[in-house]
């Protein structure tokens, strides 16, 4: 009887959701959340050191993000941005991770500080959403969106 109920599209969807839920325990979710937070910290530190080797291992080859000017960018563009970065400090504020099986979403406010050529310091606050997918047992960053926060917010 149960097999007959699962032969239509809705039944297949319900079956898939049940299988995913059965295969992911709360302990796995907590471990996954901790891993995503760790990866974000490693990425932030590697960015400040211009350490492309470390960042490249975490970022999927099909990674995409949008520039502040509304241009779709990829992993190669990310490397060029890293090479030009003048950031001296990054603080991650109010991080949150939500895990959905083999997908995870990281959100946070980011405060980046850089020293300008004239010696002054410039700080910029953004809100970021990073999307991770688990591939071959490892979390990979596949998409990112960063939005500037207006001054005084």
> Any idea how many domains?
1
Question: Briefly, what CATH class?
Answer: Alpha Beta
Structural class: alpha+beta
Output the strand order for the largest sheet: 2-1-6-5-4-3
Question: Residue-averaged pLDDT, rounded?
Answer: 84
**How large, in whole angstroms, is the Cα Rg?**
19 Å
Largest sheet: 6 strands, mixed
- Proper CATH architecture: Roll
The count of strands amounts to 6
Order of helices and strands: HHHHEEHEEEE
State the helical fraction.
25-40%
User: What fraction of residues sit in β-strands?
Assistant: 35-45%
Number of helices: 5
Spans with pLDDT under 50 lasting ≥5 residues?
1-22
- Termini Cα gap: 58 Å
Return the CATH topology: Nuclear Transport Factor 2, Chain: A
Tell me the overall shape.
globular
Explain what the structure shows.
- This protein has 153 residues and is an alpha+beta fold.
- The protein has a single domain, classed as Nuclear Transport Factor 2, Chain: A.
- 39% of the residues lie in helices and 42% in strands.
- The chain contains five helices and six strands.
- It has helices at residues 2-5, 9-23, 26-48, 52-58, 75-84; strands at 59-66, 72-74, 87-100, 103-115, 121-135, 138-148.
- It has a six-stranded mixed sheet with strand order 2-1-6-5-4-3.
- Helix 3 (26-48) runs antiparallel to helix 4 (52-58).
